[in-house]
Design a protein that fits this description.
With 131 residues, the chain is mainly alpha-helical. It has a domain of 25 residues. The chain has six helices and no strands.
């Protein structure tokens, strides 16, 4: 829903930066405010804002590779995402088991900033033609 509302109004980079900054802001609220109700609302909003990032990444990658490589590149992108989604909970579980759970929102804020930096490194949007 959010992606459809903002897609026609913003470009890829500005959309990603807006979404990631809002997610990082709500993570900061989660980190700073020690209230269960405020934490629940902030966490729900973090998930709401991070949800459209994966389809945007797939769309951006598919626009920048030639059609002959699209299947391989999309499979690699999805595979790397699956590796991250399977090791992330493992690492977070280890961190929580050692008692460092209060520092987790700070780590997620840093990861959102790194993700935003990755959007700056992405080349301009133009389709590669095959010769």
């Amino acid at each position: 829903m959010l992606a459809y509302a903002l897609e026609s109004r913003l470009r890829e980079r500005s959309f990603a930066l807006l979404i990631l900054s809002l997610a990082a802001g709500f993570l900061a609220v989660l980190w700073a405010v020690k209230n269960v109700h405020a934490d629940a609302v902030a966490m729900a909003l973090v998930g709401f804002f991070l949800g459209p990032i994966t389809p945007k990444i797939l769309s951006a990658v598919s626009l920048r590779v030639p059609t002959s490589l699209k299947g391989v590149v999309m499979s690699m992108t999805i595979g790397l995402g699956l590796i991250g989604s399977s090791t992330g909970p493992l690492v977070f579980g280890i961190v929580a088991g050692r008692g460092y759970l209060s520092s987790l929102p700070g780590v997620l804020i840093v990861l959102a900033v790194v993700n935003a930096a990755g959007w700056f490194l992405m080349p301009k949007q133009k389709r590669i033609r095959e010769d």
